[in-house]
Amino acid sequence: METGALVIRDERADDRDAIRDVVAAAFLGHPHSQQTEHRIVDALRAADALSLSLVAVRDGKVLGHIAFSRVGIGDGSPDWYGLGPVAVAPAQQGRGIGRALIETGLTRLRARRAAGCVVAGDPAYYGRYGFAADPGLRYPGLPPEYFMAQHWSDAPARGEVAYHPAFELA
Description:
By secondary structure, the protein is an alpha+beta fold. About 25% of the residues lie in helices and about 30% in strands.
């Protein structure tokens, strides 16, 4: 039973085990996952590469998590980020928690004057948040319609996108 309000906040050190559990559970059995997303988050954190790490909390319990990390763009465009992974505890999915995490994270990145954000995933889902395929940005091995971006700068970004080496765990 939901009692308190959902709070989106920065992760704290004492959230780490709960984040790991939520992320692992959210991707368990997912057909497009190698079940390494929780390890990716841990590796990003260990490398001090989590640019933004938010949790969704209700009544002191972590129900969801989202990670953003810097990405490299082939043309050298600065201040670009990758969204992911985003995870919600299976019993809490479909209740707007993922939406709250994504919208809060994107708002926070824009407030930092980020140039843009990329995501690899379902176009039907991420399109709701303003992500769209961009033929100028490529991610190797992924069909172009599943690699999307939001541009927040007038300067176009072009080229291959490189995520942090932690994503090689996937």
